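Fold Annotation — chain and its backbone

Encoding — discrete vocabulary of local shapes
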Amino acid sequence: MQVTETLNSGLKRELKVIVPAKDMEARLSERLDTAKDKVNLKGFRPGKVPVQHLRRVYGKSLMAEVVNEILSDTQKLLTDRGEKPAMQPEIAMTEDEKEAEKVLSGGADFEFTMSYEVIPPIELKPFSDIKITRQIHDVPDEDVEEQVKRVADSARTYEVKKGKAADGDKVKIDYLGKIDGEAFAGGAAEDSEVVIGLNQFIAGFEEQLVGLKAGDETTIKVTFPDEYAAEHLAGKEAEFDIKVKEVSKPNELEINDETAKMLGLESAEKLREIVRGQLENQFGQVTRQKAKRQILDALDEAYKFEAPERLVEAEFNNIWEQVTRDLERAGHTFEDEDTTEEEAREEYQRLAERRVRLGLLLSEIGEKAGVQVSDEEMQRGLIESIRRYPAHQQQEIYEFYRQNPQALANVRAPLFEEKVIDHLLGEISVTDKKVSRDELMADDEDDAGEKPAKAEKAAPKKKAAPKKAAAKKKEEGE
């Protein structure tokens, strides 16, 4: 095999590979010798088929296998050169049928070219120079009590009352939703229970139930949010025909062991313990995310190197697809977001370059530190990924992951990244600073813009999660 480098510019490489016809013939002969003891052909005893007859019958197909074997073994070429390709190399061969026929017939050298980009060498610096301030929020008892009341509210009992519905009352209704006079899917229900003031339904729906009493029938009007998960309803005005069947007032709610037992817990103390743990976990995630962002910003500032063009292009395309899809779903244009398509492209191009550089850097840091993702961690990550799908699809999704190495790599990547961040937190200088809830959560709304809105059923069910305009999303260092 003859390998000639025909391009070496920046990170771009191109190799011309020639496998002489005699080498191709030698590989084919090995396959023919192996095949003659296994193949069964009419008119010949097993193991007695002449090699020349095998060549006439199977020669081209076996030579095609030789070609594929050579192409699949190109990674060894790069390993021998001490290079790591950023992506799978692009292979180019002759498209001339006559030339290809000669190769398969053993009458010509097999030639192809490999084009690829290499991962740039990254020289790691001491991490002790990186300094961050980690914000920490200690959850006060009053916040725990407030959340306990919200949780326990699901165990609150109600008593049927006469008279008009007020804020906090539970109203049992039948409803039928219409847009332009036509009923829409998911917009009807019977004996639906609405607690006025919980804001479980789209804005304006619950408020219009105030003052109604059992037996009343009315029509209320609402407008679906522009970001509503059901795209066919987003931004639409709708009318709901309402029939009130029952109005109930809430009984006094006491936080005691009996209330806790109604929630499946043994005591009020256990309820408070669980709620505190949930709040601490929630704020802890924000603390970590902000610390991670500071680390990534510091790494981005400290390491400036050329990023492989194809990786950046692939990352940009992923970002741009999400941005344009979000804009389309919201019915917005770039002008609505106070920008232009050209400016947005420039912004997301920079974001793609940053993400690729940080990704390569974290990979290098993790590799040098010996960071590993265990099989147990992979299994937990896989289960967590599968749980995001409906129950009836989970087995199918599991099989997809099991049979698709690239999909599994996508499960491993964020697990590996978080473990690298853990490693860095032990290497850098971290100063903890206690802050209030508002200080910790400041700017967190922008970060939520990276997350897709939670899918909801057709109204008047709960509102879709708010989402920042696509063109203003902030990078989270994925």
Notes: The first helix runs from residue 21 to 36. Confidence is low (pLDDT under 50) at residues 444-478. The first strand starts at residue 2 and ends at 9.
